[in-house]
Amino acid sequence: MTGAEKGDGLVGDLAERIAQSNPTTVKMLDTAIAGLSAAERSELDAYLAYLRSAGHGLDFIAESYNTILRDTVREQIFFRRNGRYRHARYDEVAASVYMNDDYMSRYMVGLAVTTYLWPNHLAIHRFFRQTLPDAPAGDYLEIGPGHGVFFMAAARSGRFAKCLGVDLSPTSVAMTRSLLASGHFGDFQDYEIRQADFLDASLPPRAFQAVVMGEVLEHVERPDLFMARIRELAAPGAFVFVTTAINAPTIDHIFLFDSPEAVRDLVRQAGFEIVAEAVLPYVGMTLDETMAQRLPVNIALRLDPRV
Questions:
Q1: To which H or E segment does residue 50 belong?
Q2: Which is it for the CA torsion 135, 195, 71, 3, positive or negative?
Q3: What is the pTM of this model?
Q4: Cα angle vertex 178, ends 298, 143, to 5°?
Q5: By C-alpha distance, which of 155, 177, 157 is closest to 167?
Q6: Backbone φ, ψ for residue 84 (5° rounding)
Q7: 113 contacts 180 by C-beta, under 8 angstroms
Q8: What is the pLDDT of residues 217-260, one digit of tens each?
Q9: Is 298 helix (H, G, I), strand (E, B) or coil?
Q10: Cα torsion angle, 74, 76, 77, 81, sign
Q11: Helix, strand, or coil here: 56?
């Protein structure tokens, strides 16, 4: 049993299930849960209740989380041995990940849970919420909403006239639609989740006062094209929020950023000014130590399109 009291909400119950099949996670889970604010723990509890209402038991959710852990460890071993990600092209992972409903469902559920239980993912979620516009801010566009947790946070803020999400994966589209329509988190209006390739999607230029793209750049062959497309769609002075990962092998990461400066160069070359950033090294290490060992770094950037 973990340090989370038995029966203390679904969060504690989930931690028990995860630890039962993966005892090495006990200390990490205890630390992560202890670090959640009361509001964050309540949000995670509500998300788990939603998943259960959608037919996903705690065993499935725990296995989804452990799938992320196992796959990440396997890819980290490959990266350390070979100095590169296993795959470098989208077509090498599309069928087995994005178009595989069984795997993608577990992948998205597991990733959603890491939003709260992995310190770096939680820090990025907090940074996102802290940097969202304070006042009404026009139309919102999110590229790759995935499990829908960030999209829902933007929609719940009440600061956007309309919210549009564009995702290539039919599983992700279905999951985000289900999350918003569930009624567990409020009654959402004026939103659309569209299945499309972002680079080919028919979207009006300079029309979005907020553009968000979380954990997408490392999944594509040409991150520069994605940033250039955002630059075309963002209105002058728009809120633009982008995150990615450095030296972070996973089953479907294909573009390797090897330093924070490589990411900064990418966004500046696309015509953005960096307003604020969060650079998160490996837990328990400094950035220099993390980079020296080529361990994962997460980076989130609040950008402003230069006129």
A1: helix 38-53
A2: positive
A3: 0.94
A4: 40
A5: 177
A6: -155, 165
A7: no
A8: 999 999 999 999 999 999 999 999 999 999 999 999 999 999 99
A9: strand
A10: positive
A11: coil
